[in-house]
Structures are given as structure tokens and as C-alpha cells.
Design a protein that fits this description.
The chain is α/β, with parallel strands linked by helices. Helix content is about 35%, strand content about 15%. It has a domain at about 10-145: Nucleotidyltransferase, domain 5 (2-Layer Sandwich), CATH 3.30.420.10. Keywords: Cytoplasm, Endonuclease, Hydrolase, Manganese, Metal-binding, Nuclease.
């Protein structure tokens, strides 16, 4: 069972999805949960089934005191790098909260101060605290929906399945079809051995 971070403060949890992908945005969410929020299946989105993620998304959006979701797209990722883009996405998600948090808990080990609000980085926080886990669910489901939509535009990359991650299938499609507007140009899209000039 995940913990509630602090009942004395209004705490926002934030997390991102899609940091390691070759295509699509990095997406972040921020969530403030009520103190009486409970859910036995809430956990890190990476170990939660698709069916449960959808159930959780609905509950989180209906019961959260506030939540925000935002994307940072490929051109921005290429300009500022993926770490800065991930933090920017979390800042944008926090900006969308209709309630100001008194403290922010962040999944991972890197963050930049948001406004004048105190924050704490927590390694594997999405498996420890409910609000970070809730943010991970909203970030993952929102990004997956985006990847599903652009799959219809470029089905040859099978983004509805791989979600833009560097699978063998995705890399093979890049080798065959090249890249498109949804690929991150600053990322290593193909292994070096596929680009050797003879």
C-alpha cells in the first residue's frame, strides 16, 4: 500500500512519461489528492495493467482536489534536452493546478524550483507515494492517447504498441522509412552500425 505524504500540507505529486522514447512528447502530470483518498491498485504506471490504468485515471480525475497534465513536444526536447524538457513538462503540469500546493514531491532525482514552493525529489517515488503514483498514471495514459492518435497518421512505426520507445521493431521502421516530424532529432535513433559509410 502506498503512503500519503503529509496530512499537514497540501502536497502535489508530479511525474513524467516518455522520457526514453525516440518519438512523441514527454508528458507530465501533477496531482493533489484528498487526505481520505484510498485505492488498493494505485501504483507506478509502469507496473499497472492497461485496464487498471484506465480505471485509475477515471478515479483520479474525479476525486483529485486538483490535477494538471501537459506535454513538451519534440522540437522543444531537441532544443533544451530531455532532462530539461521533463522538468519543464512537470512545471507546466503544476501550473495547471487550480489549487496551489504547499509542497511538491517529484519522482526521480532532478528538479528545478517551481515558484517559491518547497520540493523533494524521491527516487522511485511513484512506487512509494500515492500522489506521485497518481501523476504517473495520468502522464502515462495521456501520452499513450497521443501516441495512439499519431499512430493513425504513421501506422508503419506501430506507435500504438511501442508508444515511441526504442524497440527493435521501431528502430527497424526508422531504418526502412526514415524519420518523421514526431521523431526526436537529437536522440540516437539508430545504432551506429546501421549508419556506417563504406
Amino acid at each position: 500500500m502506498l503512503n500519503f505524504y503529509n496530512i499537514e500540507l497540501i502536497v502535489a505529486g508530479t511525474d513524467e512519461a516518455g522520457r526514453g522514447c525516440l518519438a512523441g512528447p514527454v508528458t507530465a502530470a501533477a496531482v493533489i489528492l484528498p487526505q481520505n483518498f484510498t485505492n488498493d491498485i494505485l501504483n507506478d504506471s509502469k507496473i499497472t495493467s492497461l485496464k487498471n490504468r484506465e480505471l485509475l485515471k477515471s478515479q483520479i480525475q474525479s476525486e483529485a482536489l486538483a490535477y494538471g497534465i501537459d506535454h513538451v513536444f519534440m522540437d522543444e526536447i531537441d532544443k533544451i534536452n530531455i532532462l530539461n524538457a521533463s522538468i519543464l513538462a512537470m512545471h507546466r503540469a503544476l501550473q495547471k493546478l487550480k489549487l496551489d500546493p504547499e509542497h511538491i514531491i517529484v519522482d526521480g532525482n532532478k528538479f528545478k524550483p517551481f515558484k517559491n514552493i518547497s520540493h523533494e525529489c524521491i527516487i522511485k517515488g511513484d512506487g512509494k507515494f500515492m500522489s506521485i503514483a497518481a501523476a504517473s498514471i495520468l502522464a502515462k495514459t495521456s501520452r499513450d492517447e497521443f501516441m495512439q492518435r499519431i499512430h493513425e497518421e504513421y501506422p508503419e512505426y506501430n506507435w500504438k504498441k511501442n508508444k515511441g520507445y526504442p524497440t527493435k521493431e521501431h528502430r527497424a521502421a526508422i531504418e526502412k522509412h526514415g524519420i518523421n516530424k514526431y521523431h526526436r532529432k537529437s536522440f540516437k535513433l539508430l545504432p551506429d552500425q546501421l549508419k556506417i559509410d563504406f
